[in-house]
Amino acid sequence: MQVSRLDDATREAVLQQLQNWTYDAQAKGIRRTLQFADFAEAFGFMARVAILAEKADHHPEWFNVYNRVEILLTTHDADGLSQRDVDLASAINAITS
Hints:
4 strands
């Protein structure tokens, strides 16, 4: 299935609705950094996201140090941000609320 990159206007519109995510033009995706009480809480969050990502067949690029998790969502097949990234970001936001 072909995945399309969001055009600039659509990207800007969804970013206004997508709390806590910022556009990274160099990476052609959206980023979010989260901080937790400790490593166990951060790792638990990553495990929950891993389940969401696996179900969506769309996996984040991420980095973890102790209580901090940095996430980048981009669709390499679309060479940029796609609806799949927005959907996963929304699902991540839902479990952090």
